[in-house]
Write a structure and sequence with these properties.
The structure holds two protein chains of two kinds. By secondary structure, chain A is of the alpha+beta class. Chain A has helices at residues 2-14, 27-35, 69-72, 94-103, 133-136, 200-213, 244-248; strands at 49-52, 59-64, 80-84, 87-88, 108-115, 118-125, 141-145, 157-158, 160-165, 168-169, 178-181, 183-191, 219-225, 229-237, 253-262. Classes of the chains: A alpha+beta, B mainly alpha.
């Protein structure tokens, strides 16, 4: 996967700058919508935990979000939520099922939770799981882009491939820019630093690291997207972090926003 | 022709053969064994050196593997610090990461794909022994 991304990145770098005027088909927005419905929705519910299907019945709490409803209920990572308001959570689509279940209970929420062989119930008011209108309402949009010319070599900024936006995979074909809702957005990027920046030994070490880590070699970039702004992202090469262990630990680069320009977004 | 060389040859040819020294064959055998031993030693050293060169990356992988296995996704996140020790900006970043994680889980992302997001989340959270401490801040009470 990582190799294919790198290959794709090199391929893109070799391509002439074809005018790819279209935006990404709102991959990140779709994910955000799954988690936080649009402002037109009467109420949006958020359990305040990362949930995943992990074998046994119910959904496993992978992490508890600070300040969320799950934290109020004293849920812990590793707990299994078997049902919410009597609705079973044997599902592969946690977000939509949990939202439906939270909405089904009226003014209260009742969870059936399994922890270490014990099953217990937890109750709270539904308000604890309701997102505020300010969070749900759209606040405009902006763009991120990994296309176009990168700065001069002396600035050590190189291309990246954006693999995920807000948890959703980006298209495999190059797009000019990705449209994002304004606010804090999470990008996952893979570096596309030219091979010429590495010595032959360093290339071997980098290849070994990529083979070992695969998609784990990608890095997260959190961008505060302002409405009407476009953010150019890249990989900053760190020449002073080119020791053997630095390369094996994937510490020789970091994702950065290297340019912000105003760009109207609709 | 009766040159001095021819005479010398004839003279030497007429002499009886001299028997070799009695310890010649054992000495020759000893020398042969030494040569074979040196050859074996050289070949063994070269093979050991080649083996080491070949095994270093493999051993490196084996050493790295436990660390990677401990990061193997699928395991729920361990305990985190209470909310009180996190500043608001950090909390907002964690919420954004959690939204991304949930969207990725909904999409069926692999554990490898999720690891960078988990890593970023872990970097924001100072760990503590237990998460069981109830976390109550007035701003979170409805």
């Amino acid at each position: 996967m990582a190799l294919s991304r790198l290959f794709l990145l090199n391929l893109i770098a070799c391509m002439p700058l074809v005018a790819l005027a279209q935006d990404a088909p709102t991959a990140g927005n779709a994910a955000a919508a799954a988690r936080a419905p649009s402002a037109s929705t009467a109420a949006a519910y958020d359990l305040g935990a990362v949930l995943a299907k992990r074998g046994d019945g119910g959904l496993t709490v992978m992490a508890v979000t600070p300040g969320g409803g799950a934290e109020r209920l004293k849920l812990r990572a590793g707990d299994r939520i078997l049902s919410i308001n009597g609705i079973s959570l044997d599902t592969l689509t946690p977000t939509s099922t949990v939202q439906q279940a939270l909405a089904a209970g009226g003014s209260t929420v009742r969870l059936e939770v399994a922890r270490g062989g014990l099953t217990f119930a937890a109750d709270d008011r539904v308000r604890a799981f309701t997102q505020s209108a300010a969070v749900v309402a759209s606040q405009g949009c902006g763009y991120v882009s990994n296309q176009g010319p990168t700065p001069s070599l002396s600035e050590n900024i190189h291309p990246v491939a954006i693999t995920k936006i807000a948890g959703a995979s980006t298209p495999l074909y190059p797009v000019n820019r990705h449209r994002l809702e304004a606010g804090r957005q999470v990008l996952v990027v893979a570096e596309g630093i030219p091979l010429t920046r590495f010595s032959s030994i360093q290339l071997i070490q980098r290849k070994r690291m990529v083979r070992q880590l695969d998609a784990r070699a990608y890095k997260v970039l959190i961008v505060d997207v302002e409405p009407g702004m476009k953010y150019h992202v890249g990989a900053q090469f760190l020449p002073d972090r080119m020791g053997r262990q630095d390369i094996l630990d994937n510490e020789y680069w970091r994702p950065v926003v290297w340019k912000e320009v105003p760009e109207p977004c609709r | 022709m009766n040159t001095p060389d021819a005479r010398l040859k004839r003279h030497l040819g007429s002499m009886p053969p001299v028997p070799p020294a009695t310890d010649l064959w054992p000495r020759l055998e000893l020398a042969r064994r030494r040569r074979v031993r040196r050859l074996k030693l050289s070949v063994g050293s070269a093979a050991a050196l080649l083996l080491c060169v070949a095994l270093v990356p493999l051993l490196g992988d084996m050493v790295d593997r436990p660390a990677r296995a401990s990061l193997a996704a699928g395991a729920p996140e361990p305990a985190v610090a209470p909310l009180q020790v996190l500043d608001q900006d950090t909390v907002e970043q964690i919420r954004a990461l959690d939204r991304a994680l949930q969207a990725a889980y909904d999409e069926g992302a692999s554990d490898d794909e999720l690891e960078p997001i988990w890593k970023a989340r872990r970097a924001l959270l100072p760990r503590q022994a237990s998460i069981s401490t109830p976390i109550t801040t007035s701003s979170n009470k409805s």
